[in-house]
Fold this sequence. Notes:
Elements: E1 2-8, H1 9-16, E2 19-21, E3 27-32, E4 42-45, H2 49-52, E5 62-66, E6 78-81, H3 84-95, E7 105-106, E8 111-112, E9 117-118, E10 123-124, E11 129-130, E12 135-136, E13 141-142, E14 147-148, E15 153-154, E16 159-160, E17 165-166, E18 171-172, E19 177-178, E20 183-186, E21 191-192, H4 198-203, E22 217-218, E23 224-227, E24 232-233, E25 238-240, E26 246-249, E27 254-255, E28 260-261, E29 266-267, E30 272-273, E31 278-279, E32 284-285, E33 290-291, E34 296-297, E35 302-303, E36 308-309, E37 314-315, E38 324-326, E39 331-332, H5 333-383
Parallel strand pairs: 3-4, 4-5, 5-6, 7-10, 8-11, 9-12, 10-13, 11-14, 12-15, 13-16, 14-17, 15-18, 16-19, 17-20, 18-23, 19-24, 20-25, 23-26, 24-27, 25-28, 26-29, 27-30, 28-31, 29-32, 30-33, 31-34, 32-35, 33-36, 34-37, 36-38
Antiparallel strand pairs: 1-3, 2-6, 21-22, 38-39
Amino acid sequence: MRLPQPMNLGQIAAVIGGRVHGDASVMVTTVCPSPMQAKEDDLAFVFDQKLVKKLAKCVAKAIVAPEGTEKDYPERNMVLVERPNLAIQRVLTAVAPKRYYPPVGVHPTAVIDESVVLGEGVAIGPYVVIGPKTKIGAGTKIMPHTVIGGEVEIGENCLFYPHCIIGDYIKIGNRVILQQGASLGSDGFGYVTERPSNLEKNMAGQKDFSNEPNPLLKIPQTGNVVLHDDVEIGAYATIDRATMGSTIVGEGSKIDNLVMIAHNNRIGRENLIIASVSLGGSCSLGDRVVVGGGSSLSDHLNLGDDAVLSGGSGAMKDIPAGDIHAGTPAVAARDFFMQVANARRVPRLLDDMRDLKKRLAILEQQFVEDAAGEKDLAATSKKS
């Protein structure tokens, strides 16, 4: 990425809150996040110690690196920082290219109910549809083809990318970002039958199944979705409205692309829910919970504050505060990786067992032969 203008290391250190090691007047024109791919005029970023060990192969004349790197590379020109990821966030925030948002006002193709209340500086793009009695706070930007239902409350300085769908009665706080295609307020998945279903019988251990029709009756989903301030929802993520009450996403939580959040979930503050996660109904996640990509939670689970579910796992029981779980069904990460290590040992153990069986067979044969020889010797002695 090209900088808006050439900058020296002293200027960069001031932007990202680092300190210069080497020549502060060295100029750079571009930023490269990978030191192994950087060119001479790039500012290269080093994120962890594995990359630090490879810096001898980096040709960039300027580097942003963790504190202490200068001890191994005293001749290199660097900006030293405590948190390299935070440094790149600050650099990219400062040099990010312009995004193209709709201008303030309402595009002539938008369809907006006459009862809608728009705050100062709201920007409504082409082909947006907004239902009755909805209120939108100052400075919010809504991009093309987004559909917003009735009696929705949207806070200030939100940003909704194209093709978002927001159902009736949804409440959205300030500075919320919806990436393209995000869906809020679809009906929760709830059905019931008049008579006990074959599934219910099966789960209870009964096998007297019936072939008679037993229609699935939809349970009305009368609740809503509430997003608190500074939430971000990824592209094509889906959050179901509650059966009763609210499905809640707490302040500052970030939900990645293609995540499915079922009805009546309660998600705390500053959670990270990563791509393709599926949360069953009525789960409760505390603050700062991390759910790794491709993981799933059964219904009605509780994850305590700072709990972590590793990527690709399946949780079927609660995870206590601060614990890290992995695997399917998920268990404490230490136990899971011990199981994996033990499983890898099985082929060798089988080989050892086969070898021991062969050795035992040889010993048994030798014992039989020795016993027979002693018997013959005893018989010969008796005759003599």
